[in-house]
Specification:
With 179 residues, the protein is of the alpha+beta class. The chain has a single domain, classed as tt1808, chain A (Alpha-Beta Complex), CATH 3.90.1570. The protein has five helices and ten strands; from the N terminus they run H-E-E-H-E-E-E-H-H-E-E-E-E-E-H. A hairpin with a 4-residue loop joins strand 6 and strand 7.
């Protein structure tokens, strides 16, 4: 089982891939993103910027999770929506700073819906979206509990979803999930 300290040492020695994240003691290579992934992440970020102010959004940023998971986990979601401007943070965002996490999934769906969802739920992340490019759907997780999320809704095609932080703002799944 790897720790954050181990990863910092390995990265300093050039032994880790250029992009990686640590999830429950496992070093996960984040290979370069393909065009569908990049385009979807860009569309989601653009929509969120239209709803929230730019200083509240961070693309691909490491976050802290529950204190008991922090030593062996440093995930890097595709998009982080904060409760306060990023300029006010002097460290990785912690769960109380986070209003929404978004993962764009084209090859990592099982990982995003499994270990990462459980990790985020244990941390108390109030809302987590997994945008499934292959299935053109969004898995919306809410109600974090120790073992997972109490509510997981799956939205497809023309279905509208909205973030808890701004329930009046809606977006069609196909506007986000088309690769």
């Amino acid at each position: 089982m790897w720790t954050r300290e181990d990863c910092q040492r390995l990265a300093g020695m050039g032994l880790l891939p250029e992009r990686w994240e640590l999830v429950q003691g496992e070093i996960v290579s984040k290979a370069g993103t393909n065009l569908p992934h990049s385009r979807a992440a860009q569309r989601i970020l653009a929509w969120l910027m239209g709803v929230f102010s730019s200083p509240l959004l961070l693309p691909t940023c490491s976050i802290d999770v529950a204190p008991e998971d922090n030593p062996t986990s440093e995930p890097e979601p595709d998009i982080v929506l904060l409760n306060r401007p990023a300029g006010e943070l002097g460290r990785n965002p912690v769960p109380s700073d986070i209003a929404l996490l978004v993962e764009v999934s084209d090859t990592t769906l099982d990982h995003d819906l499994g270990p990462k969802a459980r990790l985020y739920a244990r941390a108390g992340i109030v809302e987590y979206w997994v945008v499934d490019l292959k299935g053109c759907r969004v898995y919306q997780h809410r109600g974090p509990e120790a073992g997972g999320y109490a509510a997981i809704e799956v939205y497809e095609d023309d279905a509208l979803l909205s973030p808890l932080a701004r329930p009046e703002a809606t977006v069609a799944v196909k506007a986000l999930a088309l690769g």
